[in-house]
Each structure stands twice: as structure tokens, then as C-alpha cells.
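Chapter review: from sequence to fold.
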Amino acid sequence: MPVAASKRRPARRTGAPARAPLSPPWSPDLDDLRGDFARYLRTECGLLPNSMAAYGRDIRDLLVFLAGEGCTRVEDVDAGRLSRHMQWLTSERQLKGSSLRRHLATLRVLGAWMAATGRLPGDPSTLLERPTKWRRVPRVLSARDMERLVTSPAAPGAPDSDNPALWVRDRAILELMYACGVRASELTGLTLSDFRPDTRSLRVEGKGGKQRVVPIGVPAMKAVEAYLRDVRPRLAQPDGSDRGRIFLSRTGRPLERVALWGIVRRRAREAGLDAHPHMLRHSFATHLVQGGADLRVVQELLGHADISTTEIYTHADPARFKSLHRRCHPRG
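The C-alpha cell string follows.
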């Protein structure tokens, strides 16, 4: 009776060459375009990592679509293909209006760059129509709910058993996000030199590396100063791994954006609320508008490049705007 063949896997050869990475589905010509455009965004536009990642995803979607259409040359990227790409994002990917507008913004930057660098005779993105969609009024917390949220981290019964003082850090985070309307990525990027107690202000680096100075209210000032005085020195490590950032994790490293989301969500649940970091930014802007702040001032404080982005907050207090209309319009 013949002996059954062994089912053992063949021994792996020592020193065998590693498997080559899969090549992208688009042509080398389009891949060179992607690389050159990324360098332009990084060096000329000075985009931050999160913005670079968003542009990268949008360009990858475009190149996958172009490859599916058999497009292999940069010269073949025209308005028709860009338009069909936007239609594909709508019908096949079922993207919503806000995501479509972001893709369109990417295509417009790409088109203008290709025309300016001579890769195309003209900008094909100028013929694209902007997706029309009613903007959704952002969900915000009331002033009373914000008070509950920022005071939710309290010393008695703090759940951070291994480091009870973290409630001081979390209180400073919540106070500062609401006081200044900063984005999550902006807050985690703050350094010690950005905090200016002498002028009660905060220097913030926003999208595209643009800087703005935002005033800080008294409660937020006290919370941040208490954290810097009593807690941060105990978290910081002597190896300099904190990189001078204001807010640190329990291990002494710079607080990451994902961890910040977890802190805000957890503290909101403790206060019986449902909130995330960007809701604090929306609440900041909405409460300013409700208090009578000029929309241009709110635009500057938020770091919006376009006033149209800030106009969403005019829906926050319709009664006030009706009153202004009746008082100021000749036929109000």
C-alpha cells in the first residue's frame, strides 16, 4: 500500500525576495500626476496632514474612475470625464452634498494647477456645476447644557483611578474648546507658546497653516492655568516626547485627535448629553451670534476663509434676525 504523500507545507526559503507591492490600477502617467500634485499641496499650499489625507482620498477616487474609463494620459482629463466622475460619486458612491462639495473643491484645485503648470491648455473644472443642497443647521448645545458639560469633569468620584488628576486636564480641554471654538485637530496641535496668559489669548494654526488669535474667557483661563500648573508637569516625560504640546495623554505623549474625541464623548455621557468635539465649535459660534456678535467677527474667530461658511449660523436665532429685518428694512 503506497504511503500517503505528506501534506506539510514546503519550507520557506531563507532570503527569498519580498513580494512586490501591487501597482496602482491607473497608468504611470496619472500616478506621476498624483505625486506632483501632492508635492504642490504640501510645499506650496502648506496643507496640514488631515487636509493632505482628504485631498489624497479624493484624487485616488478620481484616478480609479479615470482608469475604469480607459484614460491613461493627463491630456485626456477633460470636463466631460470630471463631470461623469461627479455623477459617479453621486449615483454609485451615493455621497451626500457636503462630501460632493469637498470633491468638487479638490477637482477645482487640481484643474487650476494643471492649467497653471501647462499640463492642460485650460482648466476643465470651470465647467463643473456646484452640487445644490440645503445646508443642514448644525446641532448645538444650549448654554445650560454647555455649563453641564464643561463642569462634568469633577474631582469627587473621578473614574481615572490610575491618574485622578486627569479630570483637571479634561475640564481645561472642554473649557478651551467652547471658549475659543477650536477644531479638534487645532486643539491637539497647540503648543505651550500658543497659550498667552498675559493677553488672555490663544494662537491657533488652522487649515492651510493659517494662524489666528482668539481671546480666552476667564473660566477657560483659570482651567488651563490650573492644568499647566498642577497636572501637566506630572504627565510630561523627561525625554521630551511631549514635543511642547499643551495637552498630553496619561503616558505623557501629545494627545491624539482620536483620544480627544473619546474624552469629549465620555464626559458628555457623564453629563447625560450626546456631544462630540465639533459640536462645541458649533455651540461657540451659535451662542456668539445669538448674543449679537457681528458675523465677520465670528468668521475671524472660527478661521473660515469664506463668509458663506459662517452664514450657516445665521439660522441659529431666527427671532433676532426677524427683529433686525423689521427694524432696519424700509418696508419691514
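Two observations follow directly from the output. The beta strands are 195-196, 201-205, 211-215. The CA atoms of residues 100 and 131 lie 7 Å apart.
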